[in-house]
Design brief:
This protein is α+β, with helices and mostly antiparallel strands. It folds into two domains: 51 residues, no CATH class; 63 residues, no CATH class. Helices cover 29% and strands 19% of the residues. The chain contains four helices and three strands, in the order βββαααα. Strands 1-2-3 form a three-stranded antiparallel β-sheet. Strand 1 and strand 2 form a beta hairpin. The longest helix is centred in the middle third of the chain and has 12 residues.
Length: 115
Amino acid sequence: MPYSVKKQKCKQSSGKKGAYIVIKKNTGEKSSCHTSKKKAEDSIAARYAGGVTEEVIEEIKDYFRNQQDEDYLAFDDHPLASVDNLMDPSKPAPWDHLTNTEDDGDVDVDIKEKV
């Protein structure tokens, strides 16, 4: 696995203190902060569950980092913005259909938008 767990004081994005970090083995870059070794190990396992790729994880992290951004808030009530849908690599991200045409090469799904 390209990730490892290291005992190190850290701070989560929520402000909560952590004691373990997940690092990328090839770069030593900190990937995430956790309150226990088990949670850090579970985080690594989750990255490989169901074929979720690093790219998908980064897109989701970016989404939540920018929740106060007006562009991201536009998708807050979107039917595809649930955690389950965001973690499902077979479903498009809510923002993937901003310029949707039949020949754009992405996956089209039928959704009912809230009005």
